[in-house]
Design a protein that fits this description.
The chain is of the alpha+beta class. It is built from one helix and eight strands.
């Protein structure tokens, strides 16, 4: 027969064993819960794409020496102006006139701010100056008999001047600005001098045309 103390000892041992098994069960459960939590934290991935298609517009200046036939002359010397009043035999104080027109090509997409610069060749340019007028109708007031009037777009600019000057704006395709070049010989012009002036109209694109 077991003694009461032995029975008590066995009861205590069973209680300890039960608590140990419960603790191991909790630990095992915690491992299982940890695995379950890792699965829950997996993310879904998705993407959305958008594509835009682009192309550049067109921008082109054209010139004309007769007010009718326009085309591009993007490199010097460009078109040849026809000056009236003995431009090939100038004397001090003489004035020569030549019409010219500039427009945006019909397929241009942007307005233009146009500047003007010039470069001389030979010796005569050192004693020449020029003005440029907007005359409305091609060649209508661009001669000694009918000189241009009003405010010049470019006034009394020395042919030897450097840099560019603002000239005019083009705000519609195939709508020319009709110009008159007025070239004046200076008082110091020497006999036998020859040379050229090459003008460059440069356009900077602006707002889109309607």
């Amino acid at each position: 027969m077991n003694s009461p103390s032995s029975a008590t000892s066995r009861a205590v041992e069973r209680a300890r064993s039960d608590r140990r098994r419960m603790a191991l069960a909790v630990i095992a459960g915690g491992v299982v819960l940890g695995v379950g939590t890792a699965v829950t934290l997996a993310v879904w991935n998705d993407s959305e794409f958008a594509t835009g298609t682009f192309s550049s517009g067109h921008f082109d200046l054209e010139g004309s020496t007769d007010g009718a036939a326009f085309d591009s002359s993007p490199t010097a010397p460009g078109k040849t102006l026809t000056f009236a009043l003995d431009a090939d035999a100038m004397s001090p104080g003489a004035v020569a006139y030549a019409p010219f027109a500039v427009q945006l090509s019909s397929d241009s997409d942007y307005a233009a701010a146009v500047t003007l610069a010039q470069q001389i060749g030979g010796t005569i340019g050192a004693n020449l100056s020029y003005s440029v007028y907007d005359v409305g109708t091609f060649g209508a007031t661009c001669s000694a008999d009918a000189p241009p009037t009003g405010t010049a777009l470019v006034a009394d600019r020395a042919a030897t001047a450097t840099g560019t000057v603002d000239a005019f704006d083009l705000t519609a395709a195939a709508t020319p600005v009709n110009l008159c070049f007025v070239v004046t010989a200076g008082s110091e012009l020497a006999q036998g001098a020859t040379g050229t002036i090459t003008w460059e109209f440069a356009g900077a694109s602006g707002v889109a045309l309607p």
